[in-house]
Amino acid sequence: MTLTSHDPIPASNLDGAVEDYSRDKVYVLTALFLAAVTVVEILTYAYPDFPIWADNLVIPVLMILMAVKFFTVLYIFMHLKFDKPLLTWVFYAGLVLAVLVYMAVLSTFRIWWPESHG
Amino acid sequence: MAEALTARESIKAADAHAPAAHIEHDTNTGISNTKLGMWLFLASECLLFGGLITTYLLYKRPLEGPTPKEIFDIPFTSTSSFVLLMSSLTMVLAVSAIERGDHERLRIWIGATALLGATFIAGQIYEFTVFVREGLGFTTSRFSSAFYTLTGFHGVHVTIGIIMLMSLVLLSLRGKLPEHRSETVEIVGLYWHFVDVVWIFIFAVVYLVP
């Protein structure tokens, strides 16, 4: 049977998948969602006094938006949502190690307390 | 040795006679070693880019030369970021096309991905040229060194991705990329998406965070 772009790709045809891969429409909608999030990110620069991210909230807002984009690409485009959990663990091992190591480095250099640099 | 030869012959036979079938991977994990290897490589890349981003954060306040706020052109970089984001869509559509056995669309989507990637690189070269003209050379300040090293490393990754994409197009045109080898496209896709994911981080942390 020939699959069209409207059909999900069966997990049995895929390597290391536990769920069927999405239809193409899902990927297009995901890209539109990512584009919308990017627009919001740019708005934080264009309108710095907008109430949602005024009062020093711009960094947390940007970090949340970045994380949303990061995990959307990871789970939908890179298929972590559909593949065996082992791949998720392998990647998270590197990601978590990197976050912990470099948070420690930044803390050592007192980056969270800029006034302490003198 | 004999086992390796037998495996190679069976792959050749699959190429010749079973274009729609997938080769089963007899690994303990049920995942091919190449796919698992690519994910391990991407996990290690987190540490590489983590180190470069950390260095940038430590050195982002220049002691001399132009400051980030003075030289960054956010509308231009936003457009470049959008281009790279859309290349992730064309890449996943290319993977989807080969999984469905649609070779014509595979080549179209891979070509589009390479073109978008090349547009991003062209934008980065233009941006670097403008910065150098404005007095921000590689050794101007600790900020400039950290900035060029981080974004330059990312640019090299994108360039390597474009070379891999063009290789896939050539393989496909020569008929050496049948459906049961779709994993090759998927693995290049994983690399490409990771490069996009890294840029998502760089764009927010380097360009947008005040």
How is this structure best described in words?
Chain B: InterPro entries: Cyt_c/ubiquinol_Oxase_su3, Cyt_c_oxidase-like_su3, Cyt_c_oxidase_su3-like_sf, Cyt_c_oxidase_su3_a-hlx. Chain B: One of its GO terms (cellular component) is plasma membrane. The complex is a heterodimer of chains A (118) and B (210). Chain A folds into two domains: 83 residues, no CATH class; 34 residues. Chain A is 57% helix and 0% strand. Chain A is built from three helices and no strands. In chain A, helix 1 packs antiparallel against helix 2. The mean pLDDT of chain A is 87. In chain B, helix 2 packs antiparallel against helix 6 and helix 6 packs antiparallel against helix 7. Chain B has 210 residues and is mostly helical. Chain B has a single domain, classed as Up-down Bundle (Four Helix Bundle (Hemerythrin (Met), subunit A)). Helix content of chain B is 78%, strand content 0%. Classes of the chains: A mainly alpha (118), B mainly alpha (210).
Topology, element by element:
The complex is a heterodimer of chains A (118) and B (210).
Chain A: H1 24-46, H2 58-77, H3 85-108
Helix pairs in contact in A: 1-2
Chain B: H1 2-17, H2 33-59, H3 68-71, H4 74-99, H5 103-133, H6 142-173, H7 182-208
Family (chain B): Belongs to the cytochrome c oxidase subunit 3 family.
Membrane topology (chain B): Multi-pass membrane protein
Transmembrane segments (chain B): 39-59, 79-99, 106-126, 146-173, 185-209
